[in-house]
Amino acid sequence: MSDINDKVIEYTAKLARVKLESAELGELSPQIKGILDFIGKLEEADTGDIEPTSHILPVNNVFRADEPAQSLPAEDALSGAPRRRGRCFSVPKVIE
Q1: Residues near 10 by beta carbon (within 8 Å), at least 6 away in sequence
Q2: If we measure between CA atoms, which residue out of 32, 38, 35 comes closest to residue 12?
Q3: Tens of pLDDT along the chain (96 residues)?
Q4: Phi–psi pair at 44, nearest 5 degrees
């Protein structure tokens, strides 16, 4: 994948909020290229006769009856919150 270069990796790290030192970038760059090249090889495999799956083993969900019940009091729910505003959780803004 020739489209992957240090600038793309730096940009991706910034989006993921991961700080990379230049030594790490030099080490990470060939590793990511190797991973993407391997994925490219996997895309060449003929999977036309293989039925799509989401898990390698059968998965069955266990559902409980959806019945109304007493809610957790707001004070109990907020008791472990690091920050709160009134009867609500307060979280930092993550959208730039």
Answers
A1: 20, 25
A2: 32
A3: 557 788 888 899 999 999 988 888 888 888 988 998 999 998 898 988 988 888 888 888 888 888 999 999 999 999 999 999 998 999 988 887
A4: -80, -15
Q: What are phi and psi of 12, to 5 degrees?
A: -65, -40
Cα distances (angstroms) measured from residue 3 to each of 6, 12, 23, 71: 10, 13, 21, 52
| Residue 84, C-beta contacts closer than 8 angstroms, at least 6 positions apart | 78, 90
The amino acid that residue 42 corresponds to is L
Which sequence spans correspond to the domains of the chain? 6-37
